[in-house]
Amino acid sequence: MAKKGALFRNLRQFDGYAKTLDEFRVKTTSGASVTLISAFIVIYLVLSELITYNTSTWSPSLVVDKSRKEKMPIDFNITFPHVPCHMLSIDIMDDTGEHSTGYSQDITKVRLDLSGKVIESGQTVKLGDHTKDAEKALRPVPECGSCYGATPLREDGCCHTCQDVREAYIKQGWGLVNTKEIEQCVREGWLEKLENQSDEGCNVHGHLLVNKVRGNFHFAPGSAFQAGSMHIHDLQEYSAGAAEGHKFDMSHVIHKLRFGPDTKDQSEEVLAVTNALAGTVKNSTNGKSMLRYDMIYSSSL
């Protein structure tokens, strides 16, 4: 026990806050005030640090995008109730001069009836006597199809398909003649397609990859062609309507329109424009009207 008491006595020599006897202590009002003020300051600093730690703050910053060569994904799902699928063309254009006409990669078109229900791909659309058309369709395909007076665009000087004839006429600046008189169109059933699907709608959904520059992608009726620096759509059939007098218009419903990657990464999710126009419904009674949306994609984190 004596050794233990000596150990504690030696340990007390290191006490930097030696205490005096109680009878020599003097307690003052100023000392109490300093103690209380110090305690309040300590409590305030601790609480403020806790609040700051648990509160998130946004601070603007400007970062140069070094990934300009990368593509920006666009996901969309849009329904056009008054335009059949075969008439819709999707085109992509931007300031770099890149033009994608009739873009179809990663794009799905679904035919819809008047009530908006999906039409089965194998469903029979029309019955009747097609003897004359069948006879024309069974004729042997000529080795070199006629361009019907227009300058052919193909190197072989032929127009093998109805599309070849249409493009040749557009390039010539002519309106397309009656498709009944064009053998290629009869063989491909172009007129029947127009008549049978005239009262249908179309749901278009898919995925686009575009350059990170100013540009546009658009859904337009008619076949699209590039004639020099001009972007042209053949609207003859669209403007005329179907044989039974049905008129088309560009009314639409936007179910989904997302710019940017679809990922669970929080930083990339902030940079994406998620469904900015989802739920937008536009009704157009004028078949020749154009509906346009301008969006500024500005990344900030």
Distance between the termini: 69 Å
The main pleated sheet reads as:
5 strands, antiparallel
Give the overall pLDDT as a whole number. 76
Subunit arrangement of the protein: single chain
Query: How much helical structure, as a percent, in the residues?
Result: 25-40%
Number of strands: 10
Strand content bin:
15-25%
Structural class by helix and strand composition: alpha+beta
Which strands sit side by side, in order, in the main sheet? Answer: 4-5-1-9-10
Q: Give the overall shape, derived from the CA principal axes.
A: rod-shaped
Uncertain residue ranges: 122-138
C-alpha Rg (nearest Å) = 37 Å
SSE order, as H and E?
Answer: HHEEEEHHHHEEEEHEHE
H/I helix tally = 8
List keywords for this structure.
8 helices; 301 residues; five-stranded antiparallel β-sheet; single chain; alpha+beta; 21% strand; three-stranded antiparallel β-sheet
